[in-house]
Amino acid sequence: MKVAQLTALRDLEIGECHEPRLERPDEVLLRIDRVGVCGSDVHYYTEGRIGDQVVEYPTTLGHECAGTVIEAGDGVRTLRPGDRVAVDPAIVCEDCDQCRAGRWNTCRNLRFMGCPGEAAGALAEYYVLPARNCIRLPDRVTLDEAVLAEPLSIGMYAVRLGEVYPAARVAVLGAGPIGLSVLAATKTAAPATVYVTDRINARLKVAVQLGADWTGNPERNDVVRVIQQQEPWGLDLVFECSGDPACIDQAIALLTPGGTLVLVGIPPAPRIDFDVHAMRRRELFIKNVRRQKGCLAPAIRFLEEGGLDTPLLLTHRYGLEKAQEAFELVADYRDGVVKAVVDLSGAD
After folding, report:
1. Distance (Å, whole) CA 152 – CA 179
2. Which part of the chain is CATH 3.90.180.10?
3. Is 348's pLDDT higher than 60?
4. Global pTM?
């Protein structure tokens, strides 16, 4: 089968490897049809690491994926060949203290697709997964849309963790796929006022179409000052979705006493600095988002019900042979890209 392997920084090569086989009765063999390019994939692509997770070459990337069941193990009762599925890329042990407590996203033995030292990435024609990691798609949800289910589930989980409520004053810092998912989930959860910032004007236009009440580009305006003028008492909740440490300082400046900062974006460095005294004096709360927990099925229902204007996010598509072009596009934030999708359906 064909596979895209990262062999060095910013170097994806299309090669061949053996097709995987079922080894357990609870597994399914998938044909991977679509893979979305995520910001975390780009960290590995351009920097070779996220924190202490360091790439060993060659490796495969990708975890936002959808596919078709080719074969199901004898113990699988929920899926059959031909079913189209969205994939939960977090493979958990189901046995550790975290799994038993329902905290699958912090499983002590978690293997995440495309993560160094854990599980292979999805940029391959075929993949074997536990059946529990695959959710059958409704007829109304396309394979392209299914790629959005995983980032949307993170946005929904972040909103759940942040406890958005009616009349809340909210900011989303960073309008990439995750930030836009947070925006959509916030607007669905409660009639909140949402301010959105990003350095790419094309993404801000998408944010407006998804319901943002105000948008601003920090490279063109002092977004903190403008928001403070409109909300002199401060914001109740800020979702940091960019991974840029400067946005944490912005969030601290924007939050009202007792407000909450939800960290969703992945910073490039293992350590960040912030004004702890400003946080202490105003008794600000920090919540960290570790991917998602129990939100993939709700995300698929959200897509089925038309809760997200998916063409606004699905901006670019490439074949497997041009996967590197997709990664370069996303890495350089070119051409108004929101979500680039790699279509593997014609790989053979």
Report:
1. 9
2. 2-148+308-343
3. no
4. 0.95
